[in-house]
Amino acid sequence: MASPSYKHFLVSTPLPNVAHVQINRPAKLNAYHEEMWIEMKTVFDTLSLSPDIRAIIFSGAGDKAFTAGLDVQAASQQGVLKQQEGAADVARVAVGIKRHVQEFQDCVSSIEKCEKPVICVLHGFSFGLAIDMSSCADIRICTKDVKLAVKEVDIGLAADIGTLTRLPKIVGNHSWIKDVCLSARVFGAEEAYRVGFVSQVLENKEKAVETALKMAELLASKSPVAVQGTKELLNHARDHTVASSLRYTGVWNSAAIQTEDVTKAMLSGIKKTKPRFEKL
Amino acid sequence: MASPSYKHFLVSTPLPNVAHVQINRPAKLNAYHEEMWIEMKTVFDTLSLSPDIRAIIFSGAGDKAFTAGLDVQAASQQGVLKQQEGAADVARVAVGIKRHVQEFQDCVSSIEKCEKPVICVLHGFSFGLAIDMSSCADIRICTKDVKLAVKEVDIGLAADIGTLTRLPKIVGNHSWIKDVCLSARVFGAEEAYRVGFVSQVLENKEKAVETALKMAELLASKSPVAVQGTKELLNHARDHTVASSLRYTGVWNSAAIQTEDVTKAMLSGIKKTKPRFEKL
Amino acid sequence: MASPSYKHFLVSTPLPNVAHVQINRPAKLNAYHEEMWIEMKTVFDTLSLSPDIRAIIFSGAGDKAFTAGLDVQAASQQGVLKQQEGAADVARVAVGIKRHVQEFQDCVSSIEKCEKPVICVLHGFSFGLAIDMSSCADIRICTKDVKLAVKEVDIGLAADIGTLTRLPKIVGNHSWIKDVCLSARVFGAEEAYRVGFVSQVLENKEKAVETALKMAELLASKSPVAVQGTKELLNHARDHTVASSLRYTGVWNSAAIQTEDVTKAMLSGIKKTKPRFEKL
Amino acid sequence: MASPSYKHFLVSTPLPNVAHVQINRPAKLNAYHEEMWIEMKTVFDTLSLSPDIRAIIFSGAGDKAFTAGLDVQAASQQGVLKQQEGAADVARVAVGIKRHVQEFQDCVSSIEKCEKPVICVLHGFSFGLAIDMSSCADIRICTKDVKLAVKEVDIGLAADIGTLTRLPKIVGNHSWIKDVCLSARVFGAEEAYRVGFVSQVLENKEKAVETALKMAELLASKSPVAVQGTKELLNHARDHTVASSLRYTGVWNSAAIQTEDVTKAMLSGIKKTKPRFEKL
Amino acid sequence: MASPSYKHFLVSTPLPNVAHVQINRPAKLNAYHEEMWIEMKTVFDTLSLSPDIRAIIFSGAGDKAFTAGLDVQAASQQGVLKQQEGAADVARVAVGIKRHVQEFQDCVSSIEKCEKPVICVLHGFSFGLAIDMSSCADIRICTKDVKLAVKEVDIGLAADIGTLTRLPKIVGNHSWIKDVCLSARVFGAEEAYRVGFVSQVLENKEKAVETALKMAELLASKSPVAVQGTKELLNHARDHTVASSLRYTGVWNSAAIQTEDVTKAMLSGIKKTKPRFEKL
Amino acid sequence: MASPSYKHFLVSTPLPNVAHVQINRPAKLNAYHEEMWIEMKTVFDTLSLSPDIRAIIFSGAGDKAFTAGLDVQAASQQGVLKQQEGAADVARVAVGIKRHVQEFQDCVSSIEKCEKPVICVLHGFSFGLAIDMSSCADIRICTKDVKLAVKEVDIGLAADIGTLTRLPKIVGNHSWIKDVCLSARVFGAEEAYRVGFVSQVLENKEKAVETALKMAELLASKSPVAVQGTKELLNHARDHTVASSLRYTGVWNSAAIQTEDVTKAMLSGIKKTKPRFEKL
What we know:
The structure is a homohexamer. Chain A is α/β, with parallel strands linked by helices. Helix content of chain A is 48%, strand content 15%. The first copy, chain A, contains 11 helices and 9 strands. The first copy, chain A, has helices spanning 34-49, 72-77, 90-113, 129-134, 163-170, 174-183, 189-195, 205-220, 224-238, 242-256, 260-271, and strands spanning 9-15, 18-23, 55-60, 65-67, 118-122, 125-127, 139-143, 147-149, 200-202. In chain A, the strands form 2 sheets. The first copy, chain A, has a 6-stranded mixed beta sheet, with helices on both faces. In chain A, helix 1 runs parallel beside helix 3 (90-113). The mean pLDDT of chain A is 95. Chains A and B meet through strand 7, helix 8, helix 9, helix 10 and helix 11 of A and helix 3, helix 5 and helix 6 of B.
């Protein structure tokens, strides 16, 4: 089926029910400017509700980079990093910055809020925003030669689009997190794998995309009620107590378990057939 | 000393102050039906208050499985996975499901609420409910040949008895958690060890039980005031802020430190003797 | 520049903007008594506000120990572990203990509250309090021969100065945490590295301090607005939901991004020069 | 229909779908001993799941008291307020107390957890436990001559069965709450009404029970899906952030709104008829 | 200045820097259908960022109603209350409902998220959605003849657009809240004032709007940095612990206090002049 | 007994075990400058631990004011409200402000953290800081002629020392809170009483102090274990869920109930004698 066409993203459906989102500014190492993150929200919000899509893979176009992060040159000419002229009132500038940061955060969070699972393929330069965005994805895999960095300290600021908020929740090695966030040093695939930031390392981009597609195909073959419920409940658990999440889970499944997918799945488990689940 | 006798569980005391709980339905790969999880709550509630027990190990009977999970066949004939007949009101069915799920959750949570440390030995098939239950245990070890899986997606539902709630709190690799929970794929001992789901891998079930027993013996030799306080405070920390848990800890120890165990333990530390602590 | 002089700590500035704090009771394996932890709070509170300091390394003096923990002999003669004489009212004793524990906790928490990043070098004996204190540090590295243990259970009590509260938040392997906290067993560098309690292992103390100094030097060369903001935001994230931390982050940066450090850092990034940042 | 018979409680169904629970120890001003609160949990747990019951009123038997609170004489001879003999270990006694208090709390909380709305009629002496229990009810009304008091301070302890936990959440006048909880002074109907602890004051017990019954009859005439959902969502809101409760609410209603009660209720609204809702 | 024109809302600026938003469907008692709440979000989002607006009043057009709530007839023909045809899968319907409810909640929450203070004038029929929306406003005043009701139970559902979530946080009389939410009964101005749902009662709509305008005029005359910061900090406090909100407040004011409004306000306080504050 | 002497506060013990703290700058309407709030922390920290003190009353010296709030003139010459000279870096100024605000907050919070109950007598001018401080007290009473105001908006800032954080937790009328905080308008005793900000109104200062002393005398006559535990548990409840506070309460009382005060209190209740409790 045809996908809507975007200015800064390639969105294709290489397999039934699987979307592939590519950041499409390879000439600039897929660096982001404001128009791009606003469009990205549209991409993921659309896929979130698209009944034909059950799993998404997210990568950069081209061989060099997932994304080199913020396009610093663009940022220094507009937006909050643009130098303020003389007399502006600090508090009024601050309100403007806060609004801008919140809008930027919302755009990045659209990846996390997307109801379908998102598999992020980190490859080549994957700096700054690359960490913010991939931390919103569900599954992170990378290539052997990936160059990762929480780069923000090196442009004089604390990362504010999600990295510092989400890394401590998704990786259980705070000594390492503090190290890479405070030093802004580049780290590679092996290190990312060892500490649990990515769960798989592939030979190169081709293999990584191939692996992500297979994984997405597998997820897309399962009950979307079960898969999307699982994503939601895992995300809920991250931010609530055990008691609160158990309560939420019980209510969630009080509707979800009434699906016919359960019967279909159980039957095909017994009959060793491949179930076909309705759209969601 | 004699242990009460149960229908679906073998409960023995292989060592002084150490209980061994075995799921006892080996002919069916220790698969669970409703009567079993209700009885399991009784087992752990009883051990929790038994003054003679200071540490517990939990395994499956037989060589093949810790547990293959829910007895799907039984479940499809009763309980919430049973197909509803025609005209039932969705909201009323939902309330019934919610009650059922909460009761099931409560039974599984009894392992976590048990005041004594629980060491879970995962071996053979350890699917679905095996992950829910072992996530409630304090220490997880496994055999080399264990076959683990968060299986629920494959029967068309999101796991609702605790796995999705607790895994993100006890394993610091969310990319991996999302992977195994969304895909329902089987994973083995090495992977479980690498990501930190289990903290030890043993050659086979015999060795694993032996290791668990030694560990339990060690814990049982220590001050029960100290050991059980440590379990409680670690569980509290998981669900509260640092400030809140420090406050709770101070209050907890305001009574606990008044125990004579402290003097006994310090003296025997100096005298290099083995302390004997009173029942708790 | 000269550092204030302390009774139990050596505080030096081996490199510009870098402080080195050494626990200075090597003859007693740097074991702590009450006067020491109270002084330690002064040390870290002072460094926290000192504009000349941008990074701190923390180690023990001498070759044998970071710290062997609480000086149990001293503790048994004063403070809460001193045996209470006969007739004291339990509730009144409890209030005294609670106050004492809270004061002790506050002293240890000063490491975490210190606005500057703290790199902790664990070496030799690093028992009990060593874990409480290093868990407050930002980055933990250790020597090959370090001997680590959550020792409190062996003196009859649950650790109450921070270990049980912070370990479950900074290490993503709860099975391992329960194991070492309940058993009080000694563990080494390799294990600490594998589970993510430390992020680097060095050959010996000399190398470890050298490595820590280089790391500190690097952090001290960066924008203090960015570095200290990053520490604060990562600590905030640990104790709040994602939504709450994103909101806090936006407000934090609404002032912080107005710093001239951003321009300086971006310019020097472009010009490949080394920026010089004002004191903070 | 017949109600189960209890030793310490009168449980009747004065109106269809309405249960009346009376504390039945009028000779002792309905003072509680342990057996009573354990039985009370059974009463409310049973009503919670009874499909024939849609609203509950809760009062004391006799004219003199809702309840005078804990039967102090009984309590001084058993349970946690019984004087401990000489040599008991403080920490072990503490664990016993904690277990006892938690069990007592659980029994009282059964009123709050009851899925059906509970209207509490406070009359005559309503001391100590009367406040703990009525704070769990949904609606509190009282008689003109009620004598209310948070009495626990006068027996040397801080109320621990729920009053201190719930009052600050259900009454928005913390200065008043601190006043009555710290002073243990008796307060009357007018004061209770003014600060919002009760929402109605009636002439005498007869009128109060009559009013409660009419209120219960009204609630019982409405959709049980709507009524019981409303209770659950209001209780959830009390303990969660707005964002978290909105999320929970959306999931709750995703099943509940599929009820046929919505259609029935809307139709009868249009047709001005009285709808009849199925059991829940 | 000219205001944008909307289909379902009248938006005027009766005084400098003060907007008046009127629900504009008086012929239907200002009852809402989906298009209206979506447009309402646009109205409040726009005002939130409009530098010319510093305070907002919100009322219904016409004499009869603020709003009679959901247009039940419209709702029964589209959206989630529309009867589902036969064979739809319960879980899939549930996901659709959840999305719909969340979107509806988002629209209503735009009143709370609006950075400018919103004064809500409740008059005439103010049912259902009227409570959801006014609970998002900052200040609620009403007319003597207002007819208020949490009506949802009477159409067979638990209110899910915010009433049940916010009422327990903004009114400190949970007995009363449970009463009106469970019974759906109509209540008037005096009762709303007594329990603290509204903070002022006016003779009639004209007087109420006049009072609201004066109040808005006063707020608009003050420093927008101070006024909008106060709204944000009060909203933050509602959902966070005291410690967490104090921390947030300190960071918020670290930028806000740098405003020139402080100097202006202090000077004009001393000089008894009227300060003029810049746009925000 | 003699009380320590302070520069800005009169601290006396008008009754056994009762302290009276008076703000002692009547010539300036008891307006605060920095030295005062730092000293105030010492006053309350000292009383908190003083075994001879069991209740505290807090008022202003002189007839005119509890306190007119911040000494704006002093504040404009030092501290964070002092106008910054030209070239200061916004982010560095912000860090300084944040530190200053946090220190100020800590001083005010000492009233809340004080282990003994604090009764605040509001009289005459009670502006700004008067609300921040009295919101930390346990019980608030006032004189008929008190003039209260959340004044901060009128000096161009959002109150940041506690008012905006605590008011929404201690008064259950958010419409009123928003009104007085946004408008900075003066309100009187009757209004404060009606909304529940104060719990008693007295004829004049003399009567109010007399009433407060009687109340304090009563609290001081009761078990300090019970009274101070009650304060702690009510404060804990304000910031935690019901489940979490019940858990904390159980642990708190596991030590506290072991006090001999329970026996003393129960005996004297039976014997109608006046118990004498040991110091705490």
